[in-house]
Amino acid sequence: MTKLHEVVIVGSGIMGSCTAYHSARAKLSPLVLEQFEKGHHKGSSHGKSRIIRYSHGYPTYLPIMTESYRLWDELAKESRERLVNKCGLLRISDEKTAHANAKILIDGGLPNRILTGRQIREEFPQFHYDDSWFGMLDPEGGIIYADKCLEAAQEQATKQGAVFKFGEKVTDIKSESDHVVVVTNKDTYSTKSLVVTAGGWLSKVLPEMDNLVHTQAEQIGTYYWKVKSNPDRYDADKQCPTIVIETKDSKMFMVPPVDYPGQIKLCIDACEAIDPNNPLTEMPQWMEDYLKGHIAKHLPDIDASAASKIDMCIYTMTKDHHYAIGRFPSDPRILVGGGFSGTGLKLAISVGRMLTDLVRGADERTTIPELFSLTRKRVRGN
């Protein structure tokens, strides 16, 4: 007789692995199915660093981020790994945007500072922005070590009863009267609950998603640049902050050297729509050129001649850039976590808790913010 699992999770990226972590702690013995090999670089969870921050463009995220900081700290203690570096986040923009960014933190009772262009130059001499620029400093922001978070979630989940199966691609999902059947290229599984956290492959695993919240896989280039002088100024452990630069026509972000020695990560938040099974091999040249121009003008310690390395990452976007989390209306035993739109990794530990609560029968209306609902009307369809 086929074993009936309590919960099967499709996708072992950061969302699936954090869901497995919480589900294992809840004694649900989750089975996690991953189409690729362990540690692959084909999705959204690879690489050593991301930015973590309270400062987000929408207040709904603030209490979730507060919980996430606490839960990452718990996982760090369990795994004995440093998962977060609170070196600060400096958001650089015009004055109006700086104050709008600060207001969300002020309303949440969180610390922040507004800096003039002169103050930015004085406190952070590696950043040369004239008096037309302003900054908003989120002192609790900084770096989240993405690869360590993924490894820690998987390791702790496994210790508490989760099973990960790599190289198993889901080919079919069937709703039966008393269980859900999951068919892979290797086996068939029966489960009481199914959680799909398949990232850019979400609509391929569950084509019906397009009738609810349309998600689109998009590819972003992550650009690395050599520090040519004053390396101490870019040392996160000496309080070099991460930065987000907001202009009228772009958003860029910078992480101090973590992924590769002596190289910052500076990227532009611009993506190309793709089929995740056929990703781009290179990004449009204008993106690197745009970054080179900004570096030459504002970051004098960085070599602006050319990016030293370019990696690729997949975002899974929704039309409104908000997440898609909840029970499938046609079969509430199937749960979805997707559409994290390039901002999900830092919140994954809380998303995993939400999905586990739903598996355990929690009321969706009090567990998932309406902003993330699968049935929010304004983003239905293509």
Automatic annotation (TrEMBL):
GO terms for molecular function: flavin adenine dinucleotide binding; L-pipecolate oxidase activity; sarcosine oxidase activity. One of its GO terms (cellular component) is peroxisome. Its cofactor is FAD. One of its GO terms (biological process) is L-lysine catabolic process to acetyl-CoA via L-pipecolate. InterPro entries: FAD-dep_OxRdtase, FAD/NAD-bd_sf, MTOX. It comes from the Eukaryota. Residues 7-358 form the FAD dependent oxidoreductase domain. Keywords: FAD, Flavoprotein, Oxidoreductase. The keyword Transferase does not apply. Belongs to the MSOX/MTOX family. This is FAD dependent oxidoreductase domain-containing protein. It comes from Steinernema carpocapsae. The lineage of its organism: Eukaryota, Metazoa, Ecdysozoa, Nematoda, Chromadorea.
